[in-house]
Amino acid sequence: MIEAVRSAMDVSMARDEDVVVFGEDVGYFGGVFRCTQGLQAKYGRTRCFDTPISESGIVGTAIGMAAYGLKPCVEIQFADYMYPAYDQLTQEAARIRYRSNGDFTCPIVVRMPTGGGIFGGQTHSQSPEALFTHVCGLKVIVPSNPYDAKGLLISAIEDPDPVIFLEPKRLYNGPFDGHHERPVIPWSKHELGDVPEGHYTIPIGKAEIRRNGSAVTVLAYGTMVHVALAAAEETGTDAEVIDIRSLLPLDLETIVASVTKTGRCVVVHEATLTSGFGAELVALVQEHCFYHLEAPVVRVTGWDTPYPHAQEWDYFPGPARVGRALTEAMEA
Hints:
single chain; Rossmann fold; five-stranded mixed sheet
């Protein structure tokens, strides 16, 4: 996943000299997760550079650059650090197109590592995607594999509007079998996939069916796609697993078609339950598929509690919890 993200920025910078990359430690150091390693050496300090520890300054500068025609792709070191920049994102970036009647756009990408899995505690492990999906004017992406990460990030950089690009940390360094293991997990039956060299894009706003099924639909994104796949296989449930990947805009058509077919739905995400993005998914399924539902929609999420450092691997929805939700949906 790290190499895919880096490749997307490399390809974009090579194709378009207006693309610039900056953030805390992203230059010489290559980023805390090494996602930008080598870019400064290749493209110079004017196109890949370090910033002060000021998230508001990073995003505010990117907005100004974008208004003048550049295409900034900036990194917030952890999604937990984005709160000082939230005002810039919601009050400025998301509104420039509308406030200027289309005279200005804001083609920025804000990359953020999201979720837990590195024993980072409460300030390095949050999943704040719902805070962005509530904001009109932003686009929100959470990839689940390297191929999607590269194609979607290139699409995001080429998009004329601001894109929040959330990268699940548990997938950075290799494959993931869906279980509660140590943060660095060996290759397993759930390969994350190969990534082509060069330029390619994946359309923003289109979900992907990762597993076909006819008994129950599972909606997930990011790391939880792999958890859902593991749960379906271990329980033997004929589940259709949909990788949302683009939270905003949302591929409602694919979701409705699947739930209409299966009549049952389970929603899985790592963020807390209350007001999580899963609540929006449940509401949409209820609104558009009510007469096709054979059972209540079930949610499997993180706890409604400050992020538990020592218990983070129990906090994550795992195959056992998702498996119980699949059983509940099937037996209802």
